[in-house]
Amino acid sequence: MEIIMLNSTSTSYRLGMLGRKVGMTRIFTDEGESIPVTVLDVSNNRIAQIKSVEKDGYAAVQLAYGVGKPSRINKPLAGHYSNAGIESGRLLKEFRLNPVDSLDFTVGSVLDINSIFEVGQEVDVSGTTIGKGFAGAIKRHNFSSQRASHGNSRSHRAPGSIGQAQDPGRVFPGKKMPGHLGSVSCTIQNLEIIRIDSARNLIIVRGAVPGYSDSEIVVLPAIKKILKKRG
């Protein structure tokens, strides 16, 4: 399988990689500093489709990651993978590209981690936060609790007033109240890459990323750093 090396200098588009969160650990510097890090697996990012301006109206590359269970792959998607000549993936995502950069790719090839990221670079990592079910206002919105005594009865963790009287006679949309907590898309920005293990296709970033271990993530070059260079 061909390995693609990309040397793009364009700041208008961001090509990232798909992967999974392996877990958290810590590493020590030569000075003895302990750094909390998250290990990300971005192995076998294979190209499933290349879109062009002439055919599709825009340039993009579609990446597949992981191995999808046959029972979860429908017939149209199975045919899509078959046409590309690659194994079915557990994650499929499209990245917009500069039309010039799209010429550097071929369907079925695998992205090289060192052509996309480097040590010291800052990245944005997107994932799905851990679901925590139904939660009260204190846990969900970091409210303070009410008094423990002095006349307070059975309202210690109640949210308090949620509106006015007959006018307007309703609760305004967006009011912070109890409800479902977690299991939402979240992006952590400007995480520094501490190490890259090319042999095992691992990226080690400083800090935490959304989701539980083995959850799917998307790693992109930090957008704020790109905009700062352009500005």
From TrEMBL:
Q: Which GO terms describe its molecular function?
A: rRNA binding; structural constituent of ribosome
**Residue segments, region Disordered:** 145-176
For this entry, list what GO says about its biological process.
translation
Q: Name one GO cellular component term.
A: cytosolic large ribosomal subunit
**What keywords appear on the UniProt entry?**
Methylation, Ribonucleoprotein, Ribosomal protein, RNA-binding, rRNA-binding
Classification via InterPro entries:
Ribosomal_uL3, Ribosomal_uL3_bac/org-type, Ribosomal_uL3_CS, Transl_B-barrel_sf
Sites of N5-methylglutamine modification = 166
Q: Tell me how the protein is altered or processed after translation.
A: Methylated by PrmB.
Q: Does the keyword Transcription regulation apply?
A: no
Q: Which domain of life is it from?
A: Bacteria
Q: What does this protein do?
A: One of the primary rRNA binding proteins, it binds directly near the 3'-end of the 23S rRNA, where it nucleates assembly of the 50S subunit.
Q: How does it assemble?
A: Part of the 50S ribosomal subunit. Forms a cluster with proteins L14 and L19.
User: Which family is this protein grouped under?
Assistant: Belongs to the universal ribosomal protein uL3 family.
For this entry, the protein name equals: Large ribosomal subunit protein uL3
Q: Which organism is it from?
A: Candidatus Kinetoplastidibacterium stringomonadis TCC290E
